[in-house]
Predict the structure.
Amino acid sequence: MKGVKSIREAQFLLKKQGYNISVVDGICGQNTKEELEKFQRSEGLEPNGLLTIGTLNALKSFIEPANGKDSRALEMNAPR
């Protein structure tokens, strides 16, 4: 699974869970791959450092709905 938006979302979700993502930039560099691998290993997924649909869905499952809203409504383009 590729695409700046998907990678940015994964970075945001990893960072929110305490993984070492210093910059949410949509670039799947070495640090992002390493942190994806750590997450995948912790969730029993294949630890390959690739952003797959399964990995992204697992990341999304950790987000709790805010104020009863669907977690899929998470705004990724919020002002920085």
The mean pLDDT is 85. The CA atoms of residues 27 and 40 lie 18 Å apart.
